């Protein structure tokens, strides 16, 4: 059994969102993700992992190439393997609980809005050449 207290585990950084892995369990991990107002995740996918976010407090917007949904306290979002997604935090601090599981937790980034100087890696360019967005 693994027991975590999200309020005790939270950690904040005004320069970037914080993803704190609380534990690794078999083929996955559990994480607390802390977001300051306006922070944006990279637009990315996990080809071999399912990713689930539960909003504990705060909220924002989750985007895929075909959908944009509001994320509010008590809601959760499930991204199946390979689904491209990006989270943009709203006007207040947000605490998300994340579960990932699958054969490989690896991420591929297509872009990162709001992140000055970010460039896509050669590995990610090659991945999206084979798996084009949209």
Describe the structure.
The chain has helices at residues 6-9, 122-130, and strands spanning 18-25, 28-35, 43-45, 49-57, 60-63, 68-71, 76-79, 86-89, 94-102, 108-111. It has 134 residues and is mainly beta. The chain is globular and about 40 Å long. The N and C termini lie far apart (41 Å). The mean pLDDT is 95.
Features:
three-stranded antiparallel beta sheet; Jelly Rolls; single chain
Q: Order of helices and strands, N to C?
A: HEEEEEEEEEEH
Alpha plus pi helix count: 2
Second rung of CATH, namely the architecture: Sandwich
Which CATH class applies here?
Mainly Beta
Rounded to an integer in angstroms, the radius of gyration calculated over CA atoms is 15 Å
Strands in their spatial order, largest beta sheet: 1-2-9-4-7
Quote the CATH topology.
Jelly Rolls
Largest sheet: 5 strands, antiparallel
The total beta strand count reads 10
Could you give the distance between the termini?
Answer: 41 Å
User: What is the overall silhouette?
Assistant: globular
Low-confidence runs (pLDDT<50, min 5 residues)?
A: none
Work out the helicity level: under 10%
Give the strand content. Answer: 35-45%
Mean of the pLDDT scores?
Answer: 95
Structural class: mainly beta
CATH homologous group name? Jelly Rolls
Number of domains: 1
Task: Please provide a brief summary of the model.
The strands form three sheets. The protein has a five-stranded antiparallel β-sheet with strand order 1-2-9-4-7, with no helix packed on it. A three-stranded antiparallel β-sheet has the order 6-5-8, with no helix packed on it.
């Amino acid at each position: 059994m693994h027991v975590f207290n999200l309020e005790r585990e939270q950690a904040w950084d005004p320069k970037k969102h914080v993803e704190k892995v609380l534990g690794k369990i078999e083929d996955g991990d559990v994480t607390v993700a802390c977001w300051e107002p306006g922070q944006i995740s990279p637009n990315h996918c996990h080809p071999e992992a399912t990713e689930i976010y539960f909003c504990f407090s705060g909220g924002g917007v989750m985007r895929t190439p075909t959908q944009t949904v509001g994320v509010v306290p008590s809601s959760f979002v499930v991204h199946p393997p390979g689904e491209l997604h990006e989270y943009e935090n709203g006007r207040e601090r947000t605490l998300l609980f994340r579960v990932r599981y699958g054969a490989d937790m690896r991420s591929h980034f297509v872009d990162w809005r709001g992140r000055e100087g970010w460039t896509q890696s050669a590995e990610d360019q090659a991945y999206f050449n084979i798996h084009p967005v949209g």
